[in-house]
Amino acid sequence: MKIIPVTCALIFSEGKVLATRRSQTMDLPGKWEFPGGKVEEDESPEECLKREIQEELSIEIEIFEKLSPADFTYPGKTIRLIPMVAYWTGGQFHLAEHDQMIWLGKKDLISLDWAPADLPIVHELIEKWVKLVDSKER
Question: Mind telling me which residue stretches traverse the membrane in this protein (predicted)?
Answer without folding.
Answer: none
